[in-house]
Specification:
- The protein folds into two domains: about 5-30 and about 280-410, Lyase, Ornithine Decarboxylase, Chain A, domain 1 (Beta Barrel); about 100-275, Alpha-Beta Barrel (TIM Barrel).
- The protein is built from twelve helices and 21 strands.
- By secondary structure, the protein is of the alpha/beta class.
- Strands 4, 14, 15, 16, 17, 18, 19, 20 and 21 form a nine-stranded mixed sheet that branches.
- The termini are far apart.
């Protein structure tokens, strides 16, 4: 459930009509619903053991307004860069609720995280373990570490967002786990605290999760027998969300939580989860205005003012996003089959192919749904297009939480060298 709906004939975010925002903010813009973020976090939290740490995946949506909203609900943060760590801290999330994932942590990022006193590092390789040990020793500290172990489970999701098989850049192969933990135990700057696993994103079946978590539970017992202190299990994120309303929905958080509780019973470990898409995806929409309707021999193109620089998911993953007009269609209104495209000079700048929508004309507004995760965070200024603004709504209130750059501000980011001046 989300808090976007038609009210008095206009698609609205909570109590704010989106056409009003379009006039005030300009298009395109992202709009996030506080009530949806809070509801999704609450439902997920209530499904899990009471002492679980829910570390929101900042890579899904790093807007400070979104992070602050979730932080006030009790969320921690899962970060994959020094920049994300600083964002989480700027949003008021306590350092002892932050986990640092990612395959390419630099020594400078490690220093920052150790100085802040984060909850744990999810280490992804033996070379990273050696580097972290050296940094920690130089700072007179011990780094709390879980090793990310690949359980070699196929999550049966899109190839570009699967991470738990033996042949991805993420984590340590399951067959090497005991050896890696043995190495870590000898490093004076490393404090082993648990195991980390993350098998992918947008997973719509509980079976891969259960298979992976059972393997990790067995590994925890083996490692304890080897003398390691395994007190935490970081089970990652990845639970899918419905991008298409009439499709079979993914398992709900209650079913996921029941499975986790069953599989981890008796392990006596604190559990950590890293949801991102699950919390944020359906809490955001991208509002865009129709520029032209172009009729070809075989297709009709609906050309809108948002582009793949604003929302790259359809171009990158062939992802599906529902599209709705802001003005509520009359019952039984005629529908037209459109290719919904943006103005970016790429054929892949396509939001929807052969999509049946109520007839639209230039100037009409539409909302691209389920855009709250991996939308604005992946935006660019390709074609010298300033990325979409971001707005956060709370009941009848709204605020611009990231302003759109002007063309002058965008251009001012470049610098002409002295030898080209004049």
């Amino acid at each position: 459930m989300n808090f976007f709906s038609y009210k008095d004939g206009i698609y609205s975010a909570e109590d704010v009509p989106l056409d009003r925002l379009a006039e005030e903010v300009g298009t395109p813009f992202y709009c996030y619903s506080s009530a949806t973020l809070e509801r999704h976090y609450r439902i997920f939290s209530q499904a899990l053991p009471a002492d679980s740490l829910i570390a929101f995946s900042v890579k899904a949506n790093g807007n400070l307004g979104v992070l602050k909203t979730l932080g006030r609900m009790g969320a921690g943060a899962d970060v994959v860069s020094g920049g994300e760590l600083k964002k989480a801290r700027a949003a008021g999330i306590a350092a002892d609720k932050i986990v640092f994932s990612g395959v390419g942590k630099t020594k400078e990022e490690m220093q920052l995280a150790l100085a802040e006193g984060i909850f744990q590092f999810n280490v992804e390789s033996e070379p990273e373990l050696d580097a972290l040990n050296a940094v920690a020793l130089a700072m007179g500290k011990q780094a709390p570490v879980t090793l990310r172990i690949n359980p070699d489970v196929d999550a049966k999701t899109h190839a570009k967002i699967t991470t738990g098989t033996s042949e991805t850049k993420f984590g340590i192969p399951f067959a090497h786990a005991r050896e890696a933990y043995g190495t870590a135990a000898k490093l004076k700057g490393i404090a082993i605290v648990g195991i980390d696993v993350h098998i992918g994103s947008q997973i719509t079946d509980l079976a891969p999760f259960e298979a992976a978590f059972r393997r990790v539970g067995e590994l925890a017992q083996t490692l304890r027998a080897d003398g390691h202190a395994i007190t935490r299990l970081d089970l990652g994120g990845g639970l899918g969300v419905p991008y298409i309303e009439d499709n079979q929905p993914p398992p709900d958080p209650a079913a996921y939580g029941a499975m986790v509780t069953r599989v981890t019973k008796g392990l006596d470990c604190r559990l950590i989860f890293e949801p991102g898409r699950l919390i944020a995806a359906n809490a955001g929409v991208l509002v865009t205005r129709v520029i032209y309707v172009k009729r070809g021999d075989a297709k009709t193109f609906l050309i809108v003012d948002a582009g793949m620089n604003d929302l790259i998911r359809p171009a990158l993953y062939d992802s599906h996003h529902e599209i709705v007009p802001l003005r509520e269609p009359v019952p039984g209104a005629d529908r037209v089959t459109y290719d919904v495209v943006g103005p970016v000079c790429e054929t892949s700048d396509l939001f929807a192919g052969a999509r049946a929508l109520p007839e639209l004309k230039p100037g009409d507004l539409v909302a691209i749904q389920s855009a709250g995760a991996y939308g604005a965070v992946m935006a660019s200024s390709y074609n010298a297009r300033p990325p979409a603004a971001e707005v956060l709504v709370r009941g009848p209130e709204w605020a611009i939480v990231r302003a759109r750059l002007t063309h002058e501000q965008l251009i001012a980011q470049d610098h002409i060298p002295d030898w080209l001046v004049g």
